[in-house]
Amino acid sequence: MMQMLVELVLVSCNQGPVSMAERPSSFSWVIQGKLCALAFPHRAENIRWLYKEGVRHLVSLTYRLPPVDSCPNLNSIHMKIEDFTPPTIEQVDRFIHIVESNSIIGEAVAVHCQWGRGRTGTMIACYFVKTRKISGQEAIEEIRRIRPGSIETYDQEKMVIQYYQQLKSRGEV
């Protein structure tokens, strides 16, 4: 019996066809249609695939930017964070603002670091603390349930806990 492989081809970003095989590594929706996470999107096809999926804003947590010029309709936000380190409170607050302000207008946000685990997981866990009003430990457990391997270092874990404590002291959680 012969098996046939069917490849779907879609048009995105007015840049030509994009194959479903161009899904970025470690891609997953954390909140369907609102927030997704992924590893570094190396290829232009990865960027166009994100756009096809409904992503309109890409938050890059790496020093190097992906090939975002391949999709001019995608808004690129660059927040440089050293590998294996946590974001600053200001970076977390900016990230949350980006996700929430774009959610209001129905636009999805993608966030990535190199592998989509450490910096990305830390940002999303902090987002959970703020928006779901859960403890830092609960947020860490939740992102690890959704994206195993998330949050790679003690300092990244500590950041999520400290973010919760800061919000709690201000009466925000």
TrEMBL record:
Protein name: Dual specificity protein phosphatase 23
Top-level EC class as recorded in UniProt: hydrolase
Catalyses which reaction(s): O-phospho-L-seryl-[protein] + H2O = L-seryl-[protein] + phosphate; O-phospho-L-threonyl-[protein] + H2O = L-threonyl-[protein] + phosphate
Function: Protein phosphatase that mediates dephosphorylation of proteins phosphorylated on Tyr and Ser/Thr residues. In vitro, it can dephosphorylate p44-ERK1 (MAPK3) but not p54 SAPK-beta (MAPK10) in vitro. Able to enhance activation of JNK and p38 (MAPK14).
Domain of life assignment: Eukaryota
PANTHER family, A to Z: TYROSINE SPECIFIC PROTEIN PHOSPHATASE AND DUAL SPECIFICITY PROTEIN PHOSPHATASE
GO molecular function, one term: protein serine/threonine phosphatase activity
Source organism (scientific name): Branchiostoma floridae (Florida lancelet)
Gene behind the chain: LOC118410135
